[in-house]
Amino acid sequence: MSELGDFLRTRRARIRPAEAGLAEYGRRRVPGLRREEVAQLAGVSVDYYIRLEQGRGKHASDAVLDAVARALRLNDSERAHLYALARPGGTGGTPARPAGNGGVYIGALRDGARLVLDAITAPAFVLGRRMDVIAWNAMGDRVSGFSTVPPAECNQARYLFLNPAAPEFYPEWDTVAEETVSYLRRDAGLHPGDPKLAAMVAELSDRNPVFRRLWADHPVREKTHGRKIIQHPRAGRLRLGYETLALPGDPDLLLVVYTAPADSATAGALAELAAELGVGVVPA
């Protein structure tokens, strides 16, 4: 089944007919809405919707995609993902993002962005494609230990699902795992046919059953802001907020900054880590 079909199937499976105002007739082989029910709710023919789910609706209009999004109750991130999968070339609707520098990052960061990163006193780092960590400031390294990881393995998804220490480092590992897979799914939709991402997904699916289950669920979410708990080996439990910003000129590079209220225990712990480096931390 195509990526688009897989996504639509998982989304209709989560909606019961009664929730959509439809009567449930007869025994159902699969949970959720049938394809003909989605077509009815979206106001399109059953044949057209089947073609769309089979990846054969390459010329679907904005009106049709929006109608399907409403029928399946997609949120903003899921709607954008629908557009990206339905139009892999990025024609109309929500376009796919360009893969800056060919989508290949090996730790390089332009000088101006590097200076901005180093000027931030809070823990911060830069994510590239596929959740590769390509750069960090001193406090970012102090909190996450990026410099201790071989460059080829400095990837948040790989650490989370393949490193035995990850569940201890992230006490809310299940939540972080779902967020990570959601972000990778979105990246896959924006950059279809990426062989490096496909290889990583295959490896993680083979080696971690939780990743395999989450990937099959097809979650989609933007990594814009949120909270994260880290059990730091020396500073103890850190309750952090994070903000994610796309770097101007290259939306495939994301600046992630950890924050903590000034009067919090986490801010005090970060200040102690900063003192060891001889720098100050300005909490958000």
Describe the fold and architecture.
Helix 2 (35-42) crosses helix 3 (46-53). Helix content is 45%, strand content 13%. Strand 1 and strand 2 form a beta hairpin. The protein is built from 13 helices and five strands. The protein has helices spanning 3-13, 35-42, 46-53, 62-71, 76-86, 111-119, 138-144, 156-162, 166-169, 173-190, 195-207, 209-217, 265-277; strands at 124-127, 133-136, 225-232, 236-247, 250-259. The longest helix is centred in the middle third of the chain and has 18 residues, at 173-190. Strands 2-1-5-4-3 form a five-stranded antiparallel β-sheet, sandwiched between helices. It is elongated. The model is unreliable at 91-107 (pLDDT under 50). It is of the alpha+beta class.
Q: Compute the gyration radius: what is it?
A: 21 Å
Largest sheet: 5 strands, antiparallel
Structural class by SSE content: alpha+beta
In what range is the share of β-strand residues? 5-15%
Order of helices and strands: HHHHHHEEHHHHHHEEEH
Strand order of the largest sheet: 2-1-5-4-3
How many β-strand runs? 5
In angstroms, what separates the terminal alpha carbons? 46 Å
Mean pLDDT: 83
Q: Which geometry do the CA atoms define?
A: elongated
How much helix is in the residues?
40-55%
Please count the helical segments: 13
Uncertain runs are 91-107
Secondary structure topology:
Layout: H1 3-13, H2 35-42, H3 46-53, H4 62-71, H5 76-86, H6 111-119, E1 124-127, E2 133-136, H7 138-144, H8 156-162, H9 166-169, H10 173-190, H11 195-207, H12 209-217, E3 225-232, E4 236-247, E5 250-259, H13 265-277
Helix pairs in contact: 2-3, 2-4, 7-13, 8-10, 10-12, 11-12
